[in-house]
Amino acid sequence: MQRRYWVIGGDYSDCAFGQLEPGTEKISGPFLCEVKARTEWQRLTFRDNSGATTRYTIAAEPDSIWQ
Questions:
Q1: Angle at CA 13, nearest 5°, toward 48 and 53?
Q2: Residue 62, CB half-sphere, CA atoms under 13 Å: how many?
Q3: Partners of 20 in the β-ladder
């Protein structure tokens, strides 16, 4: 089975990135290719309205989940 990738994140309450602001959470995916997940991450991270407290990351499901 292929590994699946997700882009997750949103707007945080401060620059310590400890807690997401309610209602700003965003999950994109699944992506079957890491390159496509990275493209979505770049789109979300570097868009014009992205602020200092906005952060996204790529998460991959462990291989064992599908075996």
A1: 30
A2: 3
A3: 12
Q: Report how far Cα 8 is from the mean position of its chain's Cα atoms.
A: 3
Q: How many CB atoms lie within 10 A of CB 31?
A: 21
d(C-alpha 65, C-alpha 44), whole Å:
27
pLDDT in tens, 19-42: 999 999 999 999 999 999 999 999
In this structure, are residues 6 and 31 in contact, taking their beta carbons and an 8 Å threshold? Answer: yes
Token pair recorded at residue 65: 């989940």
Q: How far apart are CA 4 and CA 65, in angstroms?
A: 10
Please state the pTM of the whole predicted model: 0.82
